[in-house]
Amino acid sequence: MPTEATSESFDSRLKSVADAIETTLEGLLAPAALPGEVVRPARLLDAMRYSTLGGGKRLRPFLVVETARLFGVEGEGPLRAGAALEMIHCYSLVHDDLPAMDDDDLRRGRPTAHKAYDEATAILSGDALLTYAFDVMAGEATHADAGVRAALVLGLARASGLGGMVGGQALDLEAERATAPHEADFVMRMQAMKTGALLLFGVEAGAILGQASPAERAALKRYGVALGAAFQVADDILDTESDAATLGKAAGKDADRNKATLVAALGLDAAKGRRDALAEDAVAALDAFPAARSALLAEAARFTAQRRS
Question: Can you tell me which residues the record assigns to a coiled coil (predicted)?
């Protein structure tokens, strides 16, 4: 288990990166139109900012920033790449909360976007965040090498699209209509797409920015896959054991909606055991790197298992 000093260091670094990402997002979501834009509609921009700023632990961009830092790459590039990934994550939450999807009224302790504005504005704000993410990732300020930028854009598209997050959401909705019990293999595959793909990409984006070797990228992929899986199992457990005040969103909805979760497929105790084993698998994958350099990534893996919200 981590020492107290290491935990404090991780908490401090997570907050520091979250603050830097917040500042980056504030600048990107400013009212002034960019070259090629005509005007940024005020209500639409306000809804985008509402859904993106001032909330969340920013774990996905933390993974981008900290993995890039593993290779000595810091500054504007990783922050922009992390902000682009966070835009994708936030757009997905806006759309997931819609009445046609999960029909949630609460997100991060506040009314969801379609409640705070209206359904049409919520949909458009999600669309705008999605497309703007690729704009940011492709910009020269993210990396001087066009090949690196192209690899980032391709990786983000694959992680967030048909065979990644969006495809996983489709499988999740299909599972709600199933009458047979959900098999663990199906649940794990769906979760690897819906949740795991963006977390894994956060790690891979940092490796792309750091121009990691094939062996280093393979080790980081093992880390990212295990971390992403642990994160979602922890989420399933929190939905079972926590409450809305703690989570900042509705709790206990998974069972009510016949959601495909590992708690349902394996039982609560087995799900907890898998969560903890996955976190340690992620930590073990970092043996390819000096412990002093990868310590915060190891703490990030443990954080996914230990978090309470």
Answer: none
